[in-house]
Amino acid sequence: MTSTPAFAAPRAGAPLARTTIERRDLRPDDVRIDVAYAGICHSDIHQVKEEWGGSIFPMVPGHEIAGTVAEVGPEVTAYQVGDRVGVGCMVNSCGECEYCRAGTEQFCTKGNVQTYNGTDYDGAVTYGGYSRQIVVRDAFVCGIPDGLALDVAAPLLCAGITTYSPLHHWGAGEGKKVAVVGLGGLGHMGVKIAAALGAEVTVLSQSLKKQEDGLRLGATDYYATGDEGTFRTLRGRFDLILNTVSAPLPMDAYLSTLRVGGAMVNVGAPPEALGVNVFSLLGGNKVLAGSMIGGIPETQQMLEFCAEHQVGAEVEVIGADDINSAYDRVENSDVRYRFVIDTSTID
Ligand code: NAP
Ligand code: ZN
Questions:
Q1: Quick one: which of 24, 75, 140, 343 has the fewest CB in 10 Å?
Q2: For residue 228, what is the DSSP state?
Q3: What are the mean pLDDT values of the chain's consecutive 10-residue runs (347 residues total)?
């Protein structure tokens, strides 16, 4: 075992504080990574506050990890010391079920192992990226293309793939009108990726405060959902809605903005149920869908796409001492647009 400094929540809702954790000795197919940056995802906050239930403490969050390879096990062929790499939301899966074989490890029938707040198949609790080093099976490590700096690449490992996958799946591209709901970490990546795919992008935000940013990121239209008349104006407009909001929304109002046959895909993960009137779906053969991160092959594909189109996250790099105040700001929709921890400040 190797000790590494980390930031952890000792119990549900408690502030994160410095601690030391152990990383396992390298197995033949393991990669030891010096973490350079770790993004703060709203899922970290949901889990630290135990809003989804079943949290394991102490918890070292962090599933948007970018760094360099420090050491590899003898069977690792894909990576060498010094390579620039990333790790997202998963660190293991069975590798044998139909979903793993299809490269959609997030749906592994044995249950994939989450990067943190999870239990690996050997019984070890997993600890995430708010730490100096992490040890991960090579199959769950992605290569970060040269064209992407590590700080702006880190959020791609969750926010990037979580928006790329459904945008790709639901055909966002030329001639398609896509609405992105919520201009936070996921939302701003959704706007950038949908625009890079060639879609016409509209942001639906609580207010017009971030309108200038939304247009700079690639949207052509921007509406405040709190404004009188917005939903009337947008009736029947969109082919696709990507909902990234961390709280429940009035679904029927959003569904009314879809064209016939349009789809509303939910990636936001509030603990509360979403209420929907079935007639909002029947009138217009509309689709209400969900999407969970993306598999490892698609994550690598997303990274190549982002490098080719020069799409990185808009980040505010912080030191570890600012993690707790950053959590408050994320919860207050005061993030522009992803906090990324410089892990060299965890010492
Ligand atoms: P975030 O940075 O906090 O962004 C969420 C945005 O939603 C906010 O910036 C805000 O945008 C809007 N919003 C927040 N509260 C709202 C409310 N009460 N009503 C209307 N809009 C509200 O969070 P994130 O990191 O992007 O994550 C978003 C959600 O996705 C979280 O629930 C997270 O757990 C989930 N998630 C899911 C997956 C998946 O695989 N499906 C992966 C990662 C994260 P405006 O200020 O523009 O309104
Ligand atoms: Zn995440």
A1: 75
A2: T
A3: 98 98 98 98 98 97 98 98 98 98 98 98 98 98 98 98 98 98 98 98 98 98 96 98 98 98 98 96 97 98 98 98 98 97 97
Predicted local distance difference test score (pLDDT) of residue 177 = 98
The predicted structure's pLDDT at residue 233: 98
CATH architecture of the domain covering 160-290: 3-Layer(aba) Sandwich (3.40)
Both tokens of 222, joined, read 């921007």
Atom of ligand 1 nearest to the CA of 159: 43
Q: How far is residue 63's CA from residue 91's CA, in Å, rounded to a whole number?
A: 10
- Residues with CB under 5 Å of ion ligand 2 are 41, 43, 158
Specify the residue for token string 């997202």: 88
Cα angle for residues 290, 185, 175 (degrees, 5° grid): 60
Residue of the CA atom closest to atom 30 of ligand 1: 268
pLDDT of residue 207: 97
Write down the pLDDT at residue 264: 98
Give residue 38's pLDDT. Answer: 99
Q: Where in the chain is the domain with CATH 3.90.180.10?
A: 2-158+313-345
Count Cα atoms within 13 angstroms, Cβ side, for 50. Answer: 14
Q: Quote the tokens at residue 233.
A: 């104006």
Q: Is the CB of 333 under 6 A from ligand 1?
A: yes
Ligand 1 centroid, distance to 66 Cα (angstroms)? 22
From ligand 1's centre to the CA of 206, what distance in Å? 12
- Reading the block at residue 13, the tokens are 């809702």
Full-model pTM: 0.98
CB atoms within 10 A of CB 168: 17
Structural domain 2-158+313-345, CATH architecture: Alpha-Beta Complex (3.90)
Residue 12 CB less than 6 A away from ligand 1: no
Supply the residue whose CA is at minimum distance from atom 34 of ligand 1: 43
Ligand nearest to C-alpha 129: 2
